[in-house]
Every structure is written in structure tokens, then in C-alpha cells.
Amino acid sequence: MFLSPPSGQRLHPGHYRHATSSPGATETAPGLYLDGEGRGCGNAYGDVAIHSISFDTAGTAMLS
């Protein structure tokens, strides 16, 4: 699962409503992409909760 924050924001703990793969992240909704075992889901949507987050030295989010 790949989650991008709403445009202009940074991911943080909280509840992200109306995440969608199309059109992706907007000013009010996060972007969402699901894949696994060589397959992707081109039409994903839903709510996502982040309970804890940290960032590595490159700024990449490490979700738990």
C-alpha cells in the first residue's frame, strides 16, 4: 500500500478519509495505491488510519 498525503501536506498520525487512486492526492483527500505479487489495483478507495509514523534520514515515511 502506498499512501500520499493531501497536496501540500505531510503524513502524520490520524484518520485520512476518502483516499483514492483516481485522481490521486488532491487538496482535500490523500492518494492511495495498492499492489502485491505483481498486480496493482487501479480503482482503490477508502479510509486509512495512521497510528504511528516516523521518517528515515531520507525523509521516507515508516508506517506502523
Describe the structure.
With 64 residues, this protein is mostly beta strands. It has one domain (2-63). The protein is 0% helix and 48% strand. It is built from no helices and seven strands. Strand 6 (53-55) and strand 7 (61-63) form a beta hairpin. The protein is globular and about 30 Å long. The model has no long low-confidence stretch (mean pLDDT 87).
Question: Any key phrases for this structure?
Answer:
64 residues, 7 strands, three-stranded antiparallel sheet, two-stranded antiparallel ribbon, globular
Intertermini distance:
12 Å
Q: H/E order of the elements?
A: EEEEEEE
Strand content: over 45%
Number of helices: 0
Any idea what the shape is? globular
Arithmetic mean of pLDDT: 87
- Strand order, main sheet: write it out: 1-3-4
Please give the oligomerization state of what you see: single chain
User: Would you count the extended β strands for me?
Assistant: 7
Contiguous low-pLDDT stretches (5 residues minimum) are none
Rounded to an integer in angstroms, the radius of gyration calculated over CA atoms is 12 Å
Output the structural class: mainly beta
Main sheet specs: 3 strands, antiparallel
In helices, the fraction of residues equals: under 10%
User: How many structural domains in the coordinates?
Assistant: 1
